[in-house]
Structures are given as structure tokens and as C-alpha cells.
Amino acid sequence: MYLTLLELSEFRSWARIELALEPGLTLISGPNAAGKSNLIEALYLLAALRSTRASVEGELIRWGADAPQTMRIAGTAATRAGEVEVEVAVSARSGTAGGGARMRTGAPLTSKRIRVNGVPRRAAEALGAIRAVQFTTLDLELLTGSSSLRRRYLDVAIGQLRAGHASALSRYQRALQQRNALLKRVAAHQARASELEQWDGLLASAAAPIWRSRSAATAALAAAAVVRHTELRAGNEAREEFALRYVPALPDGANGEDWEGAMGDALAQGRGRDLARGSTQIGPHRDELAIDLDGRPAAAFGSRAQQRACALALRLAEADYLEAGSGEAAILLLDDIFSELDPDRRERTASALDGAEQVILTTADTDSLPDGLDNLSAAWTIEDGRLRGR
């Protein structure tokens, strides 16, 4: 799979772009704050269907865009089954543009439209139409950030292969919100504790497919990540034992043979605790993806260089997972990652990318690029807010 065309308008710092793309390596260079990261964000939004940087989608609409304020991104990809086009549009709701009601961030309230080959689709249905993996300098947060970032890493990878995973997450979230609301009502003596039994069953049923998918995905990702981590290890470093472990938020001793039953039992046993805290303390929304080096948490005991190698290994493993599950290589989107790597690891990372069907790479410093980057198909420079061919 590879992108052949990107069209965007009123997105972040970009008023309008139409960019033809080819397989191989596309290099986009330019100074800091020129809009390189915005382009990578736009490309990845075609796959993930939501931004990894925006707190609310109104932030995606270019500041000062003319009315009607609408951000649009469209991408066409070549696949073995033929061309596929994904379009994502985010529009300011009527009355919120031009000084109307806005979020606290100043961004307008919005509505979103997604189309695949011109047909309206829900995000859960459109996820996976284009498959991509994004590498950024912020990937260290996969290790050092909250567990929600690691859960999202898993869920985006699974969702690009399994059409039902996003829907399963939505069902679980709805059931979780209802149970939490009921917990508060029971604690306030506005409802009976016995009413929780129905929601316990619904929540356990909704949790089971998520746990099954996450457990299977982690096994595949862990195997690929171990191989990739070995490839990235610098020549002067001692051999390290990299491990990726899925830790479901269930009491110790629960196993994956009966996820639903284990969840139901745990909810019943922990009801008093949940009532005291006013929220559900177990379930997929509290899962952890443990990342270890030599049996210890990489976030706490790894050096900065070791953590970066772990993060790169996770992203490369994600690409391997998508290719193994779909039979097609994922598009690789690299946002200025080489500038923070030492020369040895730059070369090893370039070698790990060798053979990828399509890599789109940004950099603020072309001198930081390793010699091992081959297969250059196009090079663009951002000058005065415009893309120019090199």
C-alpha cells in the first residue's frame, strides 16, 4: 500500500496543498515551525481518523480560515485490491465561527464527516481503509507517558486490521459510563445496589472481545519488537532483553480462558470499592502494556538512548504487525526522528527501513540524515509556507 495523492485545505498552518506521491522515500525538509509536522499529522489522520496532537478537533481548522470554516484532508492510496480514497472533513458548527460559542481552548465546536470512496462512513467502519504507522520525536511518551497512550498504541494497530475493534471499544465505553453513573446514584441513595447486576453483565460482555484482541495483538507485537530491538541495538551496547507484556486490569490469577466470567466475578467482588470511589476500578480502560529491559521497566531504568530504541522498535513492530495481518506494507510516516539519534543508531534505523514500500520523512536538518537512506523518489522543501520541489 502506498499513497499516490494528498489533498488538504484549511488544515493547521496550510491553506491548501495538492501533493502527488510515489512509492519509495519522499523527503520533506524545512526549518522548524514550517509545517512539516502538520503534514505528517494530516497523512496519519487518513489512517487513524483522529489527530494524535489535537485536544479537540476544532484545533485542526486553520486559524483565520474563511467561512465556512472547514478543514478537509483527502488521500488516495494504491492497494492490491485497487485504489481507495479516504476523506476527512471537520467543520465549525453553525454559530461557533466568527466569534460564536467556542471550547475553552478557543477552538470552535465542530462536526466531522468521513467518506471512503465517496461513501459516508463512521470512523469505526473507515478505520483500516488506509494503514499507516507514525514515528515522531514524542514517541518516548509510549514509555514514559500514561498507560492510556500505550492502550491507544494497541487499539490503533488492532483497529487498522480488525473492523470490529473500534466498535467494541465504543460499546464498552458506553457501558462503563452507565455503570459509573449508576455507582454515583447508588452511593447517593438514589438507586438500589441490585441494579448494578445488569450493568456488571453488560460491562463484562463488552470487555471480553477487547481483552481477546489486545492479548493476541500484544503477542504478535512482542515477537516482532524483540527482533526489531535487536536490529536497532548500537554496536557498542551490551545485549539487552526486551519484553512487551500485556497486563489486563483484572485481579491476580485471572486468565484469558474466560474473560467475561473473570470480569463478572471481579466486578461483584469489588462492588464496595467501586461504590466508595464512584467509578469502576477494573476493566480494559485500566489495562497496561508493560515495556521492560532486562526484566525492569524501561521507562524507569532505561537511558534516554535505550528508551528511544524501545520506542522505535515498537513502531517498527507495529508496521510488521499490520503487514502480517493484511498482506500489504503499511505507509511509514517519520517526523524528524533522525535528529535525536546518534550516528550509529541513525544507520541502524535506516537499515531497518530498507525495503519499505513507502516512507515519508521530514527533517529540519538534512545533514542529520544517514547515508543508508536509499530509494529516494522525491524531495520537497518548505519555503515561505509553500512546498517546492528540490
Note down, in words, how this protein is organized.
The chain has 390 residues and is α/β, with parallel strands linked by helices. The chain is globular. The model is unreliable at 97-101 (pLDDT under 50). Helix 11 (343-353) links the parallel strand 12 and strand 13 (358-363). The chain contains eleven helices and 15 strands. The strands form three sheets. The chain has a six-stranded antiparallel β-sheet with strand order 2-1-4-5-6-7, with helices on one face.
Write the layout of secondary structure elements.
Elements: E1 2-11, E2 14-20, E3 24-29, H1 36-48, E4 70-79, E5 82-92, E6 110-116, E7 119-120, H2 123-126, E8 132-136, H3 141-144, H4 147-159, H5 165-187, H6 196-232, E9 242-247, H7 259-269, H8 271-277, E10 288-293, E11 296-297, H9 298-301, H10 304-326, E12 331-335, H11 343-353, E13 358-363, E14 376-383, E15 386-389
Parallel strand pairs: 3-13, 3-14, 8-12, 12-13
Antiparallel strand pairs: 1-2, 1-4, 4-5, 5-6, 6-7, 9-10, 10-11, 14-15
Helix pairs in contact: 4-6, 5-6, 6-7, 6-10
